Amino acid sequence: MAGTPTFRPLSESLRYRPKGQALFTIEGSDIRQKVGDYESLNLSFEIEETDDYSNEYPIRTKTGSEVTQADVSVSFASRMLPRLIRQLMYGSASGLTISQAAAAAEVVDVAKIAVDEIARLAHRKITDCLVTDAAGAITYVEGTHYKCDREGGFVEILAHPVGATVTIEPDGRETAAVQITYDADAITDAPVFGILSNPSIVVRIEFLQNMRRGPQSEIVLNRVQIRVDGDVPLAADGEDNASITFTGKCLPDTSQPAGLEIGYAIDRITRGV
Question: Which domain of life is it from (predicted)?
Answer without folding.
Answer: Bacteria
